[in-house]
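Q: My labmate handed me this sequence with no annotations at all. I'd like to see what the chain might look like in three dimensions before we decide whether it's worth expressing. Could you predict it?
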Amino acid sequence: MTDALMWGALAASSLLVGALLGVARRWPGRLVGLVLAFGAGALIASVAFELAEEGLQAGGPVPVAVGIALGAVAFAGGNLAIQSLGARRHRGHPEREEGGGTGLAFGAFLDGIPEQAVLGIGLASGGGVSVALLVAVWISNLPEAIGSAADMRGERSRRAILLLWAGVSGVCALATLGGYALADVSGETGASVINGFAAGALLVMLVDEMIPEARSKAGAAAGLATVVGFALAAGLSKLT
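A: Here is what I predict for the chain of 240 residues:
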């Protein structure tokens, strides 16, 4: 379990690192967009070659499909609630309408928990840590946190932003420990549902948040960066 906590802390550390970078200075939008695109490509590969594939092998198509549906609905519904809350807060001030900052923070929280639970499940099953998933999670978390922290700078203090992301990082790290513990009681079916939940949440987050943000910031270069991220993560998944 110590190993699970250690790997979980490593995977989640990029959230806090990104928040620190986001409040420390302003970053060129193009650079953030390219990193977002790279991370999106890595996550697409992880969904295909890690989460969905391993879920299908462990429990079959039905648990994975249930998990995907639950993860997609959870992220979409939660993100809609966040956007509605932001719109109500800034009613009458359209120039301050809340967007990516809180949405990306919520996305990192919601998809980070099942992602890191999957890392714990892999450790408990004796399969070790998926390097491809670990790299994809770390890289994709970084621009999410940078962009979110930068967007929130005008509304919250640096201390409040860092405390928020420290909390998100801590919960995500503990999710790896939770996945390790759940592996003994949930069985293959439960593991497949968790894999599917992570895949569903990630797919919705990619389409609704990461890819549009990457395209808007990096322009046409976002597509190439996404392919590079996909190729790297796909290669890593076959080497581990």
